[in-house]
C-alpha cells in the first residue's frame, strides 16, 4: 500500500511540473470535437476553392489572406492587449497562458547564413517550451525547425505584423508591400523593390519552419487551409502577376 501511494504522489508531482508548459483548458487542448471530417472541412475555404479552380493573382491573394488570418498564423503574430504585444493560442485565439508577452520573445538575426539569437534574453522565453518539433500529446507546446533556415527557432514576429480581427485584404496586402512593416529580421523589399520582395517573401513562405508548421500543427489543432505547397505557389502567382492589392469594399 505504501509503495502504491508513493507512485501516485510521484505521478501527480510530475503532472504538476509539466503544467507550466501545457496549455490551459481554453487553448488548443480542447480537441475532443475535432473529427477527421471536421478537420477536412476546416482545411478548405471558398477562397481556396476559387483559387484551385482559377489560379490568378486576385484569387491567389484571397487564398493567401485566408491563410494569414487563420488562427495558426494570427496566434503567433499576436495582439496588443493592456499595452503589451501578446501571442494567443487555440482556434478561438485566447491569451497565451503564463502571461507571455513580447518581453519573453527571442530576437533573431542572420549571421554567416545562420539565424542566431541577439540582444538580452528573458529567462522565460519561447524556446523554453517550444522545441524543434510538436509534442505528441494534444495540448502540449508545438515546435518547429528545419535545415532550410538553420538556427531559426520559435519566436514572435514584430508588432508591425500583427494580423488583428479588423484586418482587411487591402490592408494586409499593403502592409506586406511596405518594407517598414513586413519584417524585423531583414529588409524584404516592397512595392518599390519587387525583385527583393519576390526573393524574400517566396523564401519566407517556402522555407520558414513556422510558416510550414501551420499545415502540421500537431494533434488537436486545425491546420491552415489547403497545403503548404499550394500556399507557396499562390504567393508566386500573386507576386508574378504584379502583386495587385484588392480595393476596400
Detailed description of the structure:
With about 250 residues, the protein is mainly alpha-helical. The chain contains 10 helices and 6 strands, in the order H-H-H-H-H-E-E-E-E-E-E-H-H-H-H-H. The strands form 3 sheets. The chain has a two-stranded antiparallel sheet with strand order 1-2. A two-stranded antiparallel sheet has the order 3-4. A two-stranded antiparallel sheet has the order 5-6. A hairpin with a 4-residue loop joins strand 3 and strand 4.
Please provide a brief summary of the model:
The protein is mainly alpha-helical and about 250 residues long. It has helices at about 1-20, 35-40, 45-55, 55-70, 70-75, 125-130, 170-175, 195-205, 210-215, 230-240; strands at about 80, 85, 90, 95, 105-110, 115-120.
The largest pleated sheet is described as: 2 strands, antiparallel
Label the structural class: mainly alpha
Counted by DSSP, the helix tally is 10
Count every beta strand, where a strand is a DSSP E run of 2 or more residues. 6
Low-confidence regions? 1-41
N- to C-terminal distance? 71 Å
Query: Which strand order spans the largest sheet, edge to edge or round the barrel?
Result: 1-2
Shape: globular
Radius of gyration: 19 Å
What proportion of the residues is helical, as a percent range? 25-40%
Strand content: 5-15%
Compute the average pLDDT: 85
Order of helices and strands: HHHHHEEEEEEHHHHH
Amino acid at each position: 500500500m505504501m509503495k502504491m501511494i508513493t507512485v501516485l504522489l510521484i505521478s501527480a508531482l510530475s503532472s504538476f511540473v509539466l503544467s507550466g508548459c501545457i496549455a490551459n483548458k481554453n487553448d488548443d487542448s480542447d480537441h475532443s470535437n475535432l473529427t477527421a471530417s471536421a478537420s477536412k472541412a476546416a482545411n478548405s475555404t471558398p477562397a481556396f476553392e476559387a483559387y484551385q479552380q482559377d489560379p490568378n493573382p486576385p484569387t491567389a491573394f484571397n487564398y493567401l489572406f485566408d491563410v494569414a488570418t487563420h488562427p495558426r498564423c494570427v496566434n503567433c503574430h499576436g495582439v496588443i492587449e493592456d499595452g503589451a504585444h501578446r501571442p494567443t493560442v487555440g482556434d478561438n485565439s485566447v491569451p497565451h497562458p503564463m502571461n507571455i508577452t513580447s518581453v519573453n520573445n527571442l530576437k533573431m538575426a542572420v549571421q554567416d547564413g545562420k539565424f542566431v539569437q541577439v540582444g538580452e534574453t528573458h529567462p522565460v522565453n519561447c524556446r523554453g517550451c517550444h522545441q524543434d518539433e510538436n509534442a505528441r500529446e494534444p495540448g502540449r507546446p508545438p515546435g518547429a525547425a528545419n535545415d532550410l533556415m538553420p538556427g531559426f527557432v520559435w519566436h514572435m514576429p514584430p508588432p508591425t505584423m500583427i494580423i488583428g480581427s479588423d484586418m482587411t485584404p487591402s490592408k494586409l496586402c499593403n502592409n506586406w508591400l511596405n518594407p517598414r512593416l513586413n519584417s524585423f529580421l531583414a529588409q524584404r523589399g516592397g512595392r518599390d523593390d519587387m525583385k527583393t520582395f519576390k526573393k524574400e517573401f517566396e523564401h519566407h513562405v517556402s522555407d520558414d519552419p513556422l510558416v510550414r508548421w501551420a499545415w502540421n500543427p500537431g494533434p488537436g489543432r486545425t491546420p491552415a487551409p489547403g497545403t503548404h505547397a499550394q500556399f507557396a505557389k499562390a504567393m508566386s502567382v500573386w507576386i508574378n502577376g504584379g502583386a495587385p492589392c484588392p480595393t476596400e469594399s
